[in-house]
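Batch 3, record 17
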Amino acid sequence: MSDGSDLDEAAHERMLQSVTGDVGKRYVKRETQKTTADDLLNAVTTKRNIGQTRIDETKRKQIRGKETLAAPLHRIARDRLQGAVSYVELKKEVNVWAPIVEENRVSDQLVFHEDDMDVMKPMIAADKTAAFYARGPKSDLEREMAEVLKQSKFNMTNDAELTEGEKEIIRAMDLKEAKAKLAQMRKMRALMSYKQANDARKSKIKSKRYHRIQKRQKRRQLLKEFEDLLSRDPEAAKEKLKELDSQRVFERATLKHGKGNAFNKELRKYASKNKEAAALLEDHLRLGRELKTKARDETDSEASTSEDEEDAGTKTFEQILKESAIEAAKAAEMEPEEETPRIQLAEAKMTLAKMRAQKTRELEEAKLRGAGKDLPKSKIFEENEDWEGGESISKINESIAKQSTVETKPPKKKRIKKDTTAEDEKNDLFSQSKHKDVVELFDEADEQMLELAKKEIEREKRREQFEKEDQIEETTRKTKKKSKKPTSVVNEEPMIDPKNFLTLETNNLNALPTDFIEKMDQADYDQSQAIALAFADDDVVGAFEEEKGEIEEREKGKDIDLSLPGWGSWTGNGVIEKKPKKNRFVIKAKGVMRKDKSRAGIIISEQTTQGITKLQPKTVPFPYTRMEDFEAAVRQPIGREWNSASAHQSIVRQSVKASAGRVIRPLNKKDVLQEEFVDELK
Amino acid sequence: MKTEVISFKAEDAGDVKSVMSLGERKHLKTEQKPIQTFPFKSKHKKKEEGDRYPKELPISDAAVKRHDAGIKDFDPEQMRTQLAKKRAEKTKRKYEDRVTATARAEILNEETSGFLETENGNLTRNVTQREIVESVDLASATKHFDLHLEQFGPYHIDYTDNGRHLLLGGKRGHIAAFDWQTKKLHTENNVMEAVRDVKFLHTENMFAVSQKNYLYIYDNVGTELHCLKNFNQVLQLEFLPKHFLLVGSGRNSWLHYLDVSIGQIVVEFPTKQGALDVMCQNPANAIIHTGHSDGTVSLWSPSSKEPLVRMLAHTGVLKGIAVDQSGTYMATTGLDRKCRIWDVRMYRQLHAYTISPLLGRVAISDQKVIACAVGNTVQTFKDMHLGVCSEPYLVHRCSGVISDLKFVPFEDVLGVGHANGFTSLIIPGSGEANVDLIRANPYETKKQRKEREVKQLLEKIPHDMICLDPDEIARVDTESLEKAEEERKKSLLHVNKPAIKFTPRHKMKGKGSALNKARRKEIVTQLRRTERNEEVKAAEKEFFGSGDAKRAREDDGPKHVLDRFKIKR
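Prediction for the assembled complex:
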């Protein structure tokens, strides 16, 4: 477009308008109202806040001039603070779980998906019937059956504890009767349990004193009963006395009390110092041993020599003892009657009492002397009150027993050898004893008492003698100032040469009749007998011991020589080799106590088998601190072979029980925690 | 309101301070007052609380003792942590309950055992098998039978562990396996060779036969499965079912152990004791006992080529040996006419009985009845292990010389192999009355047998674990630890000092200067050196004794000029 062109402006305008439609409107500028300062000032009508804003402004200016705001905390310090606070919070929150966690950790089985497990539980019968009824009968048969079943009075339901039928039965019972029965039963049970508890408590008491008192009570009780019986039925009393005697004799004859009797105990006290006492004790022990062993030997020899007397051999040791005990008791009864020795008895009693009194006086004097006091005037002799009926009888019994222990052998011998005569004697004894009356019985008792008293006196004397001798020895020892070993050691066990163990024999067996073994074998029999005899003289034990020595030598530990070659081994003329110098560098092997030491006829290898040590634990594993605990725990059998089914199940119960393929969700607070905790957590 | 008043006298209450219940007062009244009471009684008296009527029956202490494996040694308080303590308490309680529960379960053992008893002083040994058979029920009567097999010579026999099946092996080649109760024959064959011994393996389907030269294994229909040439001229066979080991004792004194589950020979070695024709196993610990011609008994395990124990048992040749099921008693017979009973745990002789010079094999039953072969008679004895036996219990004469004796488990039956066949004898009271079906099931079905075979294989015990005391595996091996420690100490004396290598840790700026580092290194090295020196000193003192060691050190030390004038020791 050039300036020079004559352009009709109006036409152009029109053209544009026709092209663009109403474009022209856009370019129409609206005239806006202009705000002036006056308008603004006029808008403010009140002067209320104007002053305040001004003051704030001034204040602000003043503050800014004097101090600044506090700087925010350092990140670490802030974290620490936050941590401390949140620790407390979190602890509170977590602590709620602590008991549950602990319980779960300690429990031996954790069960997840318990709801699943419920499904697996077998239905109880009541549920089953309920389900059946709920389903309703379908077929005709079922319908009929259901009707029949419905009529039954014994249908169980979940609601009632008892069925209709059961209730009827209960109703039918007489109330009073039932109550009485119940009461009686209750009483019986209670009584039984009291008795049981009482017995259990008594059986647990270990105290010697208690048992001593108990024993004494029993003895008294027995005596009382016996006296009662004596007054009521003398014949029965006699029988009873006999029985008691034979019991006691048997007890003593079992040789159980050989070492522990009062006499031996006392003897033992002196045995270490006094030779005579030691010899006596030794004698006693030997006698006891012989009694023990000979009883067997005799039966052996008898059995082997005379086969016709079979029944003697068949008797056990105990039976023999029993018989001899009975016999001894009878023999004691049968002793020839002397004049009633009542006067002697009284004398003996007196002397014994005197001796005792003397003894107690001496003791007290010694005590007083020890305390540095003056001696009181000598005490007036008093009658001893110890001689009560109860004790005396028991002592008589003891004395009988003592006799019997010594005399067990002869009567038994007699019995076995002369069977028939013994039988006759026995009969006589019985007949005589039957005719005896109570007076005689008491006379006998007196006699026993006298003997007992005599014995007691003897014992006292002997004791005194020992004591004197002891004193003498003591003084000599003091002068010589020589320490001596006790001359004899009390042997408690019967001595058996360990090397002769192969010749020992328990009990000879009764030989079978020879015709039992077939004739055909006779040749074999003779031959093997000959072989056995040929071998009998071999010193098998000696050969074995030799071998044992070799093995011991082989299994001994080896010494380690630490000396180096060349040390202390100078060569040349006149050099003497010094062994001890080299020995200094030899580590001696440790001497190990062999398991088979001092045991003849056995070699126990000391080599540990590698197999088992390889598998044994070397140390104690974690929670254990002591070997004993660990070993005790491992030792417990857990298999079916050694346990009842339920015990086995409880031991091998799996530690976690969960159904496969299901997620194990975290614990639900509502399920596990108690309500207050849940609230607290909220 | 009405109040109840209970009044009672002071003597009723006794010393008890608190008011007693009515029941206790009754208790006092019912019990008679003793004349003199034990003074401490009143102090110790406790009030009975809780249920007065116990729900459970009391158990006998003996039963508890039988099942107790020593749990009281286990002290939970000794555990290292609190949690472990709590857990241990629970475990302990469980084990304690186990003991009582098992003891209580003994009530289920309702069968009672008893021996034959005679009246009017008759002797039991005069009772014949025929008399027994006539008086017992039909089923039991069938248990006595005789097999006349004269042509095939002395028989060796074996029963399966459950006592149901019988295997016979005649010297002249005849072998037969059958169910002896129903008399159903599994297989019968003649191997056309000398048969020395026969043995069932873990089931009745396989058995081993030791023949003239080698050992053969056959199945239940008589098919030859294996021929083992290593087992050369084996005289006796034993099978250890828990370990699956077949043990053979050779004429050349060799002992072979074959693991039948993998078919490999585990171990074989010469015992150097001559021909091993007397052998048995201890069922409690799987130790093999062999008897020798010098009258000794040796105990063997596969882990040792030397005998673990040797005992001198007889002065003559040893003829027979047997160990009871519990592994407590051993019976031996010898040419010295004696039958001896031993405690195998202590290796001590308990009893000895003179019987006959013809004594041969011996066997022990579950109830400790001992059967001895004497020529062609069998003599059984009861209570021999208690030392109260004085004559035979039952006696039976066979038609030939007896070559083998075995009691049937869980049955009152004794199997006797002799020169003219086999005899099955009824010995009343010899077997265990209550069958332990878990241990061995006589009524096993085919399916149960298969099941058991698998289980047995899974539970197989390795042969290394065979040792004298089966409890050994539960013990901590302190011995070897001590030995190792001693070896270490000894080695301190003759092994060169090890070089001490120590590199100080690199420390951060300011602390890790070279000087500091060197100083630290010096300190540590010095410390280690002194430690070792102390140890050496201690070892010297231990092994050489203080005096010697001191003198030795003096001699080595620097000498003074004037030392030469000292008097020499």
